[in-house]
Design goal:
Structural class: alpha/beta
Protein name: CRAL-TRIO domain-containing protein
GO cellular component, one term: membrane
Largest sheet: 5 strands, mixed
InterPro entries: CRAL-TRIO_dom, CRAL-TRIO_dom_sf, CRAL/TRIO_N_dom_sf
Strand content: 5-15%
CATH architecture of the largest domain: 3-Layer(aba) Sandwich
Order of helices and strands: HHHHHHEEHEHHEHHEHHH
GO molecular function, one term: phosphatidylinositol bisphosphate binding
Number of strands: 5
Helix content: 40-55%
CATH class of the largest domain: Alpha Beta
CATH topology of the largest domain: Phosphatidylinositol Transfer Protein Sec14p
Pfam family, one: CRAL_TRIO
């Protein structure tokens, strides 16, 4: 491994369980599999997400590249300054980080704006959600866990009829097998029966660990949500102390646009068709 970068030094201080020898072994293993080169701190993110278990880390890295290669439409062409994402963000769905709790857990807001199911595109949802997670990972490095806060109050059974279930299945596979962060929970807001139907639909391809991390709140009474996410980490739209969703999303979009070259380079490398698929 090359000389230790300042970023890796910081990560090793944060994670005393991590060993340089393990990272070196992972680097050599990735090379033997013809995977694109991962930076040292990126390897540590995978290792951290798998509780520093080498076997699990290798499986996670393998799944990460395999899934991104098999579904490039979900993990590429994610320029929010161009269509279709530009208008989609303003009229259909917002997805942005809300910062970290005092314990260091990162929160991501996933908010449906438009009740018209014909306007909804789950492929674009996944692109926006992957952007949000990767912005956090790039800026923060490792962190204790991520909570996804979803507002599906405007969703209906029609959204399920319009959904691309193949893409949803791939997204859940990525979350369960190839996601280089620890999933803390999925907190869902709704006052409709959509959540019940959606849960039935995703059960066949969602493992028990993820299902057990899903928590549902009636949006007409947010007291249970405040027990899971403090008001300090919630937008004013939900009785929180942060600015409104529109304000947060506007600032976040400027940040994502400023990172365009980073994402273009990462997508070209990590979604490469030259990656060997390991069965």
């Amino acid at each position: 491994m090359d000389d230790i970068s300042d970023r890796l030094k910081d990560e090793l201080i944060k994670n005393p369980e991590a060993k340089l020898e393990d990272l070196k072994n992972l680097q050599e293993w990735c090379s033997s599999k013809n995977f694109p080169a991962l930076k040292d701190f990126e390897l540590l993110q995978f290792h951290h997400s798998c509780l520093f278990d080498m076997k699990s880390t290798k499986k996670c890295i393998d799944a990460y590249f395999r899934i991104r290669r098999s579904a490039p439409e979900l993990f590429s062409n994610r320029d929010v300054s161009k269509e279709p994402l530009k208008s989609y963000i303003s009229r259909v769905l917002q997805c942005f980080p809300l910062g970290a709790t005092q314990e260091g857990h990162q929160i991501i807001m996933y908010r449906l704006l438009n009740p018209d199911a014909s306007q909804h595109c789950f492929t674009l949802d996944i692109q926006l959600l992957s952007l949000a997670t990767e912005v956090i990972q790039h800026k923060t490095g490792t962190f204790p866990g991520v909570t996804i806060l979803t507002d599906f109050d405007k969703a209906s059974i029609r959204h399920m009829l319009w959904a691309k279930w193949g893409h949803l299945r791939v997204a859940m596979q990525y979350l369960q097998e190839g996601f280089p962060s620890r999933l803390e929970s999925i907190q869902t807001l709704s006052s409709t029966a959509f959540v019940d139907y959606a849960l039935i639909a995703i059960k066949p391809f969602t493992n028990s660990q993820v299902l057990n991390k899903m928590v549902y709140h009636n949006i007409t009474n947010l007291s249970t949500l405040y027990e899971k996410i403090p008001k300090e980490n919630l937008p004013s739209d939900y009785g929180g102390l942060l600015p409104s969703c529109d304000e947060i999303n506007s600032d976040y979009m400027k940040e994502v646009i400023s990172m365009k070259s980073y994402f273009d380079e990462k997508d070209a490398l990590h979604n490469s068709s030259g990656v060997k698929v390991n069965k």
